[in-house]
Amino acid sequence: MLKGMDGDLLPIGQFARLGRLSVKQLRRYDELGLLVPAYVDEQTGYRYYRPAQAREALSIGLLRSLDVPLAVIGHVLSGATGVLAGVRDDLEAELARRRRTIRALERVMAEGLPSAQIRLVTEPARRVAIVRESAAGPQDIGRATSAAVARLTSSASGLLPVQLIGLFPIDMGEPVPIGVALVTGEPVSGAELDVLPGGVFACATHIGPYDQISLTAHALLSWCAEHGHPAHGPIREVYVSDPATTAPEQFVTHLMIPLEEQS
Length: 263
Prior knowledge:
DNA-bd_dom_put_sf, Multidrug-efflux Transporter Regulator, Chain: A, Domain 2, four-stranded antiparallel β-sheet, Multidrug-efflux Transporter 1 Regulator Bmrr, Chain A, DNA-binding transcription factor activity, 3 domains, AraC_E-bd, eight-stranded antiparallel β-sheet, DNA binding, alpha+beta
């Protein structure tokens, strides 16, 4: 123990045991300005801490055990209020995603690896209004798609009937550009008018929640590979059911992949 101007100072190893953190963690928190030593020896670089800093160290350990990011911990320690609400929301979103994953896994356990009846369909070119969004990654596609649907349907509330088509890339990088198209020849506020090319498509029908569409997409892509058809994007999801009046287990969605040069 070192006698400092303001009382006793503890070397980093002893303080690490007191604060239930590792020496490596303390060095990292010092670099981030999250938990700065009370004194650093200029000649040796050794770090020393006051015993009173143990409460702060223990608080950091507690918050990290609750999956609170370090950046947010800094705000908490500085006395900011309400910052943990965002962490809770993120954890709830992750929990919901995990539950969706479990449901998809249970379907695979019950039915085996995905398979679907594939049919070839010829589609005409369609005039559409498209809203585009960017998903941070594959796990964010659901949120981005819902946001695009909400933007599009709110602007096209007077256009009936509503036929929506999701547009998704074959390759899932980060970010993931997605689009939702409304079949219409009329201008829609906030959307770009475009034409979806026609042509021959491999088509599979998915019945069930939207968050399990990837299972049917797997079967459709596997069929294309097995039959020597290079997969061209975007993958189309034609939403048949009205979520307002249909149970998720009964949602009908047609998935389509173009097989030839579209016209």
